[in-house]
Specification:
Layout (H helix, E strand, L loop, with lengths): L1 H15 L4 H25 L3 H19 L2 H4 L2 H23 L8 H37 L1 H13 L1 H21 L5 H27 L3 H8 L3 H30 L3 H26 L2 H24 L1 H10 L1
């Protein structure tokens, strides 16, 4: 995949007759970044958590050193080059510690054996990564830049929880598979529900704390967008509480190999977000209305996905059909 991205970028730049050094460096970085990410998953599944931590720390240290070096930080191309070098060092550490070497041997057999599952998981990842961006873009059109800035500010306040949400599949799926005791969706949810409730409570706690922050501190954190963000931060917290359940239940579905169901649920969630944000933005013309639409979608789909996961008979039918 990384090689394909690099080749596609080169072809596009050849077609337009212009080579951008930053674009070229970013496309080349995929050859290092993507294998490092994949190998991290493999190392986590193999319980080599310390090696994963050291690999990420190597990358983080290089990136921080880059930011605090004026000669490098002043050049976008130099920043990308050093960041890519950090990815290469992080990948090298994992290669040495896991003993895995890059190879194309058996690639065709690997692809043919599970191509349907990988296709749906890949599509689900694409839809997931674009949902928030497209929703915010729609909000910008319907409620204006001030409203979308307030929504983005709410997301910034709950940013650390967003990182945890994105890490749930990385940690939850290997753990469920490694336990060997997950035979049904109900078994998976028994192990994931504590994480879901914890994330939901943390989201509401962060929202509550943000409501009572001093005005001066809020302006330090978010500047002029603080007033607008403060009015909707509790709504954003409710959205993130729902997303905690949604991501945990989706991880359970992924652990059971229900790729098609995961993709269909994610696609339905994304479409609902787009439609409800657009309608609420046109009707209410406010960030509160658009944020409420996202919160409603998050909570409703959280309930739906949890119910899909715990209903073992339905999962068996879907597995057979897939």
């Amino acid at each position: 995949m990384a090689v394909l991205v690099l080749a596609l970028t080169v072809c596009v730049q050849l077609a337009v007759g212009h080579f951008d050094p930053i674009v070229s460096l970013l496309s080349a970085s995929v050859v290092l970044v993507l294998p490092q990410d994949v190998l991290r998953w493999a190392a986590i599944a193999d319980q080599k958590l310390r090696d994963c931590l050291i690999s990420d720390l190597i990358w983080a240290v290089v990136s921080l050193a880059m930011l605090f070096t004026p000669a490098i930080a002043s050049s976008a191309a130099a920043c990308v080059a050093v960041w890519t070098m950090g990815a290469g060092l992080a990948l090298l550490w994992l290669l040495l510690r896991t003993g895995v070497a890059p190879t194309f041997a058996g690639l065709r057999e690997w692809w043919m054996r599970g191509r349907t599952v990988r296709l749906f998981f890949g599509l689900e990842g694409i839809v997931s990564s674009w949902t928030g961006f497209v929703s915010l873009s729609i909000a910008t059109v319907t409620v204006g830049t001030a409203g979308s800035a307030a929504m983005r500010g709410g997301g910034l306040l709950l940013g650390p929880l967003a990182l945890v949400l994105s890490a749930i599949p990385m940690l939850g799926i290997p753990e469920l598979a490694r336990s060997g005791q997950v035979k049904s969706g109900r078994d998976a949810w028994q192990r994931l529900r504590i994480v879901a409730w914890t994330l939901a409570l943390l989201s509401l706690l962060v929202g509550s704390v943000a409501l009572v922050l001093p005005q001066s501190l809020g302006f330090v954190v978010l500047g002029d967008t603080w007033d607008g963000t403060k009015r909707i931060v509790w709504i954003v917290a409710i959205e993130y509480a729902g997303l905690g359940f949604l991501h945990c239940a989706s991880a359970g579905l992924k652990a059971l190999g229900l790729a098609r169901m995961v993709f269909l649920v994610r696609a339905a969630y994304a479409c609902s977000c787009f439609i409800f944000v657009a309608v609420s933005g046109v009707v209410f013309r406010s960030a509160a209305g658009a944020s409420s639409a996202l919160a409603l979608c998050g909570v409703v789909f959280a309930v739906i996905v949890v119910q899909l996961l715990v209903r073992g008979n339905m999962l068996e039918r879907v597995r057979i059909e897939s």
